[in-house]
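FW: tagging you since you asked about this chain on Friday. Here's the raw sequence from the shared folder, copied in full. Didn't touch anything.
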Amino acid sequence: MAGTAVPDFFFRFPMRPIRATTLDGALAEPDAPPLVMLFLWGMNCPNCDVAKRAILLAPDRFRWPELRWMHTNVYDDADMATRFGLHGVPAFFLFRGSRRIGRITGWPGSDEFCAAVEREIARGAAAPA
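HL: got it, structure written out here
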């Protein structure tokens, strides 16, 4: 993938590519893990590449059974950027079902990122069924 310092990222850490037109349907899929992390990124984005490199340093740390990953290059899907009012990338949006429950803008570092996701996983486990 030209235009990125991490061209094989999505082969080494698979994420489902998604478009603005298909996101709602994907979020509502039955029997899917309860959480979705949507990674919005852009080509030639050095901060996006920082996030990608950090994930590849310890990929198992970013895999949770309760969470599925999706991604969009917002330069190829401007509707996705508009939908979420982006002013920059990377941006990460966390959903429980079709409800957006969190946003991480920029790359806060691996420890903070993982802690934020794990807090939401714990909240979901503590919620009444």
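FW: Residues 39 and 92 are 5 Å apart (CA to CA).
HL: agreed, and Helices lie at 9-12, 23-27, 46-57, 78-83, 110-126.
FW: great, closing this out.
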